[in-house]
TrEMBL record:
First and last residue of the signal peptide: none
Keyword presence, DNA damage: no
Gene3D superfamilies: 3.40.50.1100
Organism this protein belongs to: Coccomyxa subellipsoidea
Pfam families: PALP
UniProt similarity note: Belongs to the ACC deaminase/D-cysteine desulfhydrase family.
UniProt cofactor(s): pyridoxal 5'-phosphate
Domain Tryptophan synthase beta chain-like PALP stretches: 31-338
Keywords: Pyridoxal phosphate
Name the UniProt record assigns to this protein: Tryptophan synthase beta chain-like PALP domain-containing protein
Listed NCBIfam families: ACC_deam_rel (TIGR01275)
PANTHER family recorded: 1-AMINOCYCLOPROPANE-1-CARBOXYLATE DEAMINASE-RELATED
The keyword Nuclease appears for this protein: no
Amino acid sequence: MGHHLHTCQKYSPPAWAPAWLKAPEERFLLALQPTPIHAWHPPDVPEGVQVWIKRDDLSGMQLSGNKVRKLEFLVADALQRKADTLVTIGGIQSNHCRATAVAARYAGLDCHLILRNKRHAAEQDPGLVGNLLVDRMVGAHIHQVTKEEYGRVGGTKLSQHLCKLLLSQGKRPYNVPLGGSNALGSWGYLQAVQEMLEQFGKGTITDIVMACGSGGTTAGIALGNYLSGFGARVHAYGVCDDEEYFYNFIDGIFADLGATPDVLGKTSRDLLFAHQAKGAGYAISRPEELEAILAVSEATGIIMDSVYSGKAFHAFQKDMQANPDEWQGRRVLFLHTGGLLGMYNEAAELESLIEKQGRAHRLDVQAIPL
Ligand SMILES: *Cc1c(COP(=O)(O)O)cnc(C)c1O
């Protein structure tokens, strides 16, 4: 059977998925997949630890990163329900909102985004930097709220409010949850485990390492890794909340999938290790994190983002240094979840670090004999 992008197909879960797992029936193909895997030699990895990288940053171009896999199931659901508009919410440079805006157009849907911005900035036009360029080039409708309003009202209520407003205008909105992280969206990463099995087989990879933000990627990987027998240790590096929050949130997704503790015999605490990688706060970088990102890009050509993959990778490096026995002899798969577009918003912070490498030089064209 061909793999035609931008069509809805019947979805059959992998053979290892038990019958009690609540599976979707349709999938709207969006991602370029399988995403590549290659050996990777980033700096500050102790000798004796082998690292591979799975390039989910290459799942597309304007539609790229980990959200694309979740949107395959969420968009299919929206189409099945005859929605005409996707609604979602996130930070001003949200990769998830940008991916949703593009996926909406691919599927012939309209898109409304609620974007959280600094108080003063929310009064003004958000501009065209980074993810916003794509949001706006695909014609997403942007509704800004301040951080304070977001904190006070909450993302769920804000989204419900906008959906009601659109309904009253005769639209048929479909609410995509924060980060695409609900049970349905997590199927993107249950399915990704099948892809990894086909790429590696069982027993090759001992550890999977990834950033964790809204939790759906980790939920899918951790459950798929267990149910399929892929058999790796799963490490989620949280960039916004603490470990307890993520264990509880992921247990909620498991329950919605039908994988309650009595059915599964396990909870998220048995299936993954949550680590803290928040640093100075969500989307706030410390110099050491930006330096680690630059060291990796200079040495290997891989560009990680400062909000998710870079923070996770930096915390992973620290963890290997602090607990060498835990990591000695391991074969690690680092999941690159994307985020490059957001880096266009970090130019001011990166400037002084990049200037340390030396300024750009003027080529002496006068010296060329004509
Ligand atoms: C959203 C995001 C993540 C986190 O994934 P979740 O499923 O929300 O936990 C990681 N990396 C990037 C680049 C993202 O945009």
